[in-house]
Amino acid sequence: MQDFSALDGAILVDKPAGPTSHDVVDAIRRKFGIKKVGHCGTLDPNATGLLIIVLGRGTKLSERLMGDDKVYEGTIKFGEATDSYDCDGEITGSLPVPLLTLEQLNEEAAKFIGDQMQMPPMVSAIKKNGVPLYKLARQGIEVEREARLIHIYNFRFTSYAEPLGQFRVACTKGTYIRSIAHDLGQKLGCGAHLTTLRRSASGKFDVADALPLDAILKLSPAELEKRVMPFLKLAANA
What is the fold of 70-201? Predict the structure, then answer.
């Protein structure tokens, strides 16, 4: 039977807004001197919440864990569209927001539930001929993208106070929540973009069990070992 070290497995990180997912990987690698560190599903820099960080031999399970369904919570601003579909981009249009109730918003949101082909935004890490789309977008270049099959299990607004709507969505991997925000704004005729996003769950893992990044970086190596989900337990959940 293969021997595993105490650092072969995964830790659950509550990512803050600001750093990229790769920044989180780098910070943990440098702090604890672990050669192999990876993450299971990118979060945009301004997004927060659950980031599964795999360590050592745990990195062998990253693809399996990355394929899990996700749950997000966030805020959509209606009346303004941006080129990135979120608040990081340039405003491309501004229109009056129609009179909407929470019930009406949820009627529209329900139309997104099920299988659909989703067009990835130009400002994304998807590569075209080896070049990330966001690099082309920065040069003002727009290229054809292939729509991807995704599935929305649930999409519901929990509150609405014009122009902001708070929502929760459960979906398959690879779903762009900012594309959902943009598409909803187009359907309502006023435009919209994503202003906040938090991943609350990925597969069987929940952000309630995660530790904030700054707290993880203050742990001693022995304390980190106690936080690591062992490889065999991780494999059973993958």
Answer: Pseudouridine synthase (3.30.2350)
Q: Under CATH, which number does the domain 9-67+204-237 receive?
A: 3.30.2350.10
Q: From first to last of its 238 residues, what are the pLDDT tens digits of the chain?
A: 467 788 899 999 999 999 999 999 999 999 999 999 999 988 988 899 999 999 999 999 999 999 999 999 999 999 999 988 999 888 999 999 999 999 999 999 999 999 999 987 776 667 777 766 667 667 776 777 788 899 999 999 999 999 999 999 999 998 999 999 999 999 999 999 999 999 999 999 999 999 999 999 999 999 999 999 998 888 877 6
d(CA 176, CA 181): 9
Exposed (0-12), middle (13-18) or buried (19+): which is 216, by Cβ within 10 Å? buried
Residue 129: count of CB within 10 angstroms of its CB: 6
Q: Say what the pTM is.
A: 0.91
Which of these is catalytic: 8, 14, 44, 83? Answer: 44
Please say if 68 is a catalytic residue: no
The total of other beta-carbon atoms located within 10 Å of residue 232's CB is 12
CB contact at 8 A, 54 and 231: no
Give the residue range(s) of CATH 3.30.2350.10 domains in the chain. 9-67+204-237, 70-201
